[in-house]
């Protein structure tokens, strides 16, 4: 953990186009598994047995393992940094339901993979990040979190991202990740990893997860605009209102 002067503050910003996760407007194809019933499927996908029978022109309630059932549900395309946990959280789906809908009981997913979102109708409005970003900026944010908060609790990593989001939303700072991270003012780098080159190290999986969480509104920093190591002797930082202490990191605004 670095020690920071007033000029060496943690910051991130973004403002480009929103990342849109591909969805299909067509019904999803759910594969019937052993011990399934139309009732169980209707509960999983928040629909009715009558609707399922109508959409699939079924004359009875009898179904068999391996049978494809058309369901009104969005299909999600896995993107960089995704995990089943993050996808479930993003759409407000119980993780177990996401697994059941896709018969997916391990955690291995790959970019481009299609996943059914149980209970999320094709007409539903997709949840978006609270600030815009690009994939390159997501990677940059993840690398910054890796450089600044590796070894700290996961909440501290998310909180770093939270500070980033708070800065982006403020009119007092630059409005894109690249310009903010590379910003130098009064001869001071805003990010120590830019100066020492640690920003070029690849992001950890945990940092990518933390970056996603922050972009989707998780803010353990509680609205902080700055953060620093608790060993810092910078009285200007310590004089600010503390919003959180996580691990060895202090968050203030």
What features would you describe in this structure?
The chain is α+β, with helices and mostly antiparallel strands and 253 residues long. The chain folds into two domains: 90 residues, Roll (Membrane-bound Lytic Murein Transglycosylase D, Chain A); 118 residues, Cell wall hydrolase SleB, domain 1 (Arc Repressor Mutant, subunit A, Orthogonal Bundle), CATH 1.10.10. It is 34% helix and 13% strand. It has ten helices and nine strands. The protein has a three-stranded antiparallel sheet with strand order 7-9-8, covered by helices on one side. Strands 1-2 form a two-stranded antiparallel ribbon. A two-stranded antiparallel sheet has the order 3-4. Strand 5 and strand 6 form a beta hairpin. Helix 5 crosses helix 6, helix 5 crosses helix 9 and helix 6 packs across helix 9. The two termini are 20 Å apart.
The strands making up the biggest β-sheet line up spatially as 7-9-8
Total number of helical segments? Answer: 10
**Radius of gyration from the CA trace?**
22 Å
What structural category arises from helix and sheet content?
alpha+beta
Percent of residues in helical segments?
25-40%
Q: How many structural domains can be distinguished in the coordinates?
A: 2
Q: Based on the structure given, which CATH architecture of the largest domain is correct?
A: Orthogonal Bundle
Q: Report the mean per-residue pLDDT as an integer.
A: 84
Series of secondary-structure elements, N-terminal to C-terminal: EHHEEHHEHHHEEHHEHEE
Write down the CATH class of the largest domain.
Answer: Mainly Alpha
Largest sheet: 3 strands, antiparallel
Provide the CATH topology of the largest domain. Answer: Arc Repressor Mutant, subunit A
Shape: elongated
CATH homologous superfamily heading of the largest domain: Cell wall hydrolase SleB, domain 1
How much beta, percentage-wise?
Answer: 5-15%
